[in-house]
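Recap from last week: sequence in, structure out.
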Amino acid sequence: MSKIIVISRDGEERAIEAENGLSVMEAIRNAGINEIMALCGGSCSCATCHVFVEAGGETLPPPEADEDDMLEASAYRRENSRLSCQLTVSSALEGLTVRVAPEE
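Predicted structure tokens:
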């Protein structure tokens, strides 16, 4: 298990325990945070799990082409934008802080 900090759209910060091996998207949804729609179920074919990595993302691999393409279509893309379905929880992500992006 790893601790991840999730900041909701209204600015509420919540620490969640995330099972290693799950995607960050799954961990957020399993914690009962309903701001991540994840319409495609984690197959990297929508951007409804868009988050901003606020802290702790130094060990994350760069986005692959499919993720980059999906983020390119977002009106809210930033340098720290990621699709939470493409981030795998591991002990290396302990303390990762993500902010849920505005809904498109």
